[in-house]
Amino acid sequence: MATITETDGKHVEKNLSKDVENKDVTVANVKVVEENGEPKKEDVHENDGVVTENTKNGAEEVKEVVKKEENGAEKGDVSPSPNVERSSSKKESNFLSHLKVHEKKALVKLRMKIEEVIRWKAGTENTKKDYERLEKTDEAEKKAVSSPPPTIEKSSSFREESNFSSDLKENEKNALSQLRMKVEEAIHGNTLLKGKKEKIESQANATSLEKESKDKEKQEEESDNNVKEEKAENNDAKESKESKQDTEEKKKLTEEAAKESTHVAVEEEKVIVDEDIALWGVPSLPSKADTATDVILLKFLRAREFKVNEAFEMLRNTLQWRKENNIDSILNENFDADFESLAYINGVDRQGHPVCYNNFGLLGDHEMYNKILGTQEKREKLLRWRIQLMEKGIQKLDFKPGSVCSMLQIIDLKDSPGPSRKEFRLAARQVIVTLQDNYPEFAAKNVFINVPFWYYAFSALLSPFLTQRTKSKFVFARPARVSETLLKYIAAEEVFVHYGGLKQENESEFLAEDPVREVFVKAGSKENIEIPVLEAGTTLIWDVIILGWEVNYREEFLPSDEGSYGLIIQRDRKLGVQEGSIRNSFKNNEPGKVVIVVENSSLKKKRVLYRYKTKNSSS
């Protein structure tokens, strides 16, 4: 605090101090002599010279102090050391004594600004480092989030879980070992098929009850006869009693003999063991050391999340269901030809799974609908035919570890009846539940194509009847995404033309082994596909499909001789979304090349798949 006293007309300022952010800058015993409010001229000239010279020295000292403080700030210590403060305070007192009050205040403000800048610089550097580190982390997270999901490659599309014991987890190995033991004990104990022992005992009880009823009838008849005999012949009463006792004893003996015989029959039935019991041609007895047995057991374990008891009960239920419904002989049964158009097995996917196509759109026809689903009896025939188709598909599988042991299901819902049709709803539920309960892990994927909006509500109704593992294998594709979805799982040469592939009915030009090539056309660009035809008189045949279509397309022939004229095979035209596969041919009269031009004016990249083959005139 500045204190001012008056002595002989002179103003004396004592003990001038300034506190700047807990740092005291003290100016002691600085006297400024004034007369009538004005400084003396000679003092002013002298002091001005001193101030100018000392201010320069002080500025250099301040710079040194600032540099030291900056070095300390870079090291993380913003506050100056005590030694620096003492030395600076002594030097300050030497030149500050010649400064005016307003100059001292200005210097103090300047120092405050410098200290603020130093602190800000130190904090900014640390903040900048933190910001850079956070920015790098954010960029990495953005890349992880914004990067598109990996497309399904040919080599890794829904690869089946390994059936090799070495690839199983420890808990899975233990579950398989426990299930093998339970199946082994059940087969030797003749309890694998449910109800076999109970049926034998019930048959024995039924025969014993029949005997007891017959015995009672005989007793009543004999008692009536005895009463008549007692009335007629009192003398023969003793003899009748003795005969009655004899008959009762004989009855007891016959009953005991019958019980013993039924007991022996039951015991003998228990001893009989069907060690040749099999499922889909694979022996169920684990001690036969067939590797395919473990593959079958693993299917039941995976269907029940490796819960041994539940998997064992599912296996017993399946065997019992097959026996009661004569499934082992279902391949010999004949069904109406109308069923064959509803579903069929044709070709394989990229992993070798047999592909089963289910065409529910045929049921959209009213006449066909009533013919197949009109009554409960017809729906039961449909179910049995669908089971037969499943058994036919299983014959194409191999249950050895590492082999293909499941199928790819394609369900086409185009023009299919909606959930409002009760018969369709009941039949679909019955088929799905039956296949799920008795054919575990036989569907690699269930791909639903041409899915209408109503099906999402229908699937919600079916959801309670499906396991989570079954629902995880469902794939849905709207009409605009059918080709793209199917080509993820099936090669183009195995997908039918009406589904956006290259496969045609009664194909005679191309084989499944003929290679299919692909080209990507960037958005707003043009791509030329050149197919050389080096010999004259050669017939060139080609197929082209474009995923997403909506491109400009043309075909032309360019001869090798520059003096010859090119030929337009297909004029430029716009291909819409509903465009199908393009097949064309051209026979040349001179060497050259066929050029297929695809111009993509859209904002999305297009994928072009094509194949070709040549035929010489001699062939």
Structure report:
This protein is an alpha+beta fold and 619 residues long. It folds into 5 domains: 3-122, no CATH class; 165-189 and 278-324, Helicase, Ruva Protein, domain 3, CATH 1.10.8; 191-272; 335-490, CRAL-TRIO lipid binding domain (Phosphatidylinositol Transfer Protein Sec14p, 3-Layer(aba) Sandwich); 509-615, Jelly Rolls (Sandwich). 45% of the residues lie in helices and 20% in strands. It contains 14 helices and 21 strands. The protein has helices at residues 41-74, 82-96, 101-146, 170-188, 196-232, 237-271, 291-303, 308-324, 366-373, 376-394, 422-438, 454-462, 468-471, 482-489; strands at residues 3-7, 10-14, 16-20, 23-27, 34-35, 38-39, 278-279, 282-283, 343-348, 354-359, 407-412, 443-449, 474-477, 517-521, 525-533, 539-547, 551-559, 567-575, 582-587, 592-600, 606-615. Helix 4 (170-188) crosses helix 7 (291-303). The longest helix is centred in the N-terminal third of the chain and has 46 residues, at 101-146. The protein is extended and about 145 Å long. The termini are far apart. The relative contact order is 0.06. Residues 1-56, 72-82, 141-157, 196-207 and 261-271 have low confidence and may be disordered.
Give a short summary of the structure.
The chain has 619 residues and is an alpha+beta fold. It contains 14 helices and 21 strands.
Reconstruct the topology from this structure.
Blueprint: E1 3-7, E2 10-14, E3 16-20, E4 23-27, E5 34-35, E6 38-39, H1 41-74, H2 82-96, H3 101-146, H4 170-188, H5 196-232, H6 237-271, E7 278-279, E8 282-283, H7 291-303, H8 308-324, E9 343-348, E10 354-359, H9 366-373, H10 376-394, E11 407-412, H11 422-438, E12 443-449, H12 454-462, H13 468-471, E13 474-477, H14 482-489, E14 517-521, E15 525-533, E16 539-547, E17 551-559, E18 567-575, E19 582-587, E20 592-600, E21 606-615
Parallel strand pairs: 10-11, 11-12, 12-13
Antiparallel strand pairs: 1-2, 3-4, 5-6, 7-8, 9-10, 14-21, 15-20, 16-19, 16-21, 17-18, 17-20
